[in-house]
Amino acid sequence: MKGIILAGGTATRLAPLTKVTNKHLLPIYDKPMIYYPLEAMRKAGIENILIVSGKGHSGHFLNLLGSGKEFGVRFSYEVQEEAGGIAQALGLAEDFADGKNVAVILGDNIFQDNLASAVKSFDGQKGAKIFLKQVHDPHRFGVAEMRNGKILSIKEKPKNPKSDFAVTGIYMYDARVFDVIKTLKPSGRGELEITDVNNFYIKENSMSYEILNGWWTDAGTFDSLLRANMLVAGKGNI
Q1: 2-232: in CATH 3.30.450.20
Q2: Could you read off the pLDDT of 161-207 as tens digits, one per residue?
Q3: Which of 26, 28, 147, 174 is at 20 to 30 A from 183, Cα to Cα?
Q4: 52 strand-pairing partners
Q5: In this structure, are residues 88 and 104 in contact, taking their beta carbons and an 8 Å threshold?
Q6: 12, exposed or middle or buried, with CB in 10 Å at 0-12, 13-18, 19+?
Q7: Residue 133's CB: how many other CB atoms inside 10 A?
Q8: What predicted TM-score, i.e. pTM, was given to this entire model?
């Protein structure tokens, strides 16, 4: 299986921290943010990793990460010309995927769980897999509507969430995902939404899921950035 880390976007919610750098290069305790999803990929046994970043700071990622030799993996790079959504960024990885299943992690997701067993079991399988986490603020995320242990649908940033299970930024897809992305139309935000991709697999009954056991957070707001730092530093689950 190949790995894809999505590290684009403008991160306006973290301005002015992101005025002259990419969000994913900001520090989380003692490492740049992007090191965490990279290490999660490596621990899961994924050695071929594509990093998708915005054009403004793509050279910074190359200077920081190089070929991947330091990490014991091999990096490739792709540039997202504009901030057109997670699904659009993922679509840029079609050539890199080369017909293989892919594991995708958003570059601002910091978590404890080891994905090795999930990667091994999903490799070569058809369909998709998402990872859920029970949260206190589900309205910030895509939220899974569930019944009898089955996901019925995912609603993006709902005002009245139907559960408190957030869809984390960890996904696994078969090679059909790129054909699905080509059928999407921009949402009201003007972006191609990963939630629409996930709902496609849900509708065809080929979506599976796991619930993360350890702590998890994104780092896209000042509060969640602070929380990520505290969690990694071992200062408690705030």
Answers
A1: no
A2: 999 999 999 999 999 999 999 999 999 888 999 999 999 999 999 99
A3: 147
A4: 6, 78
A5: no
A6: exposed
A7: 22
A8: 0.95
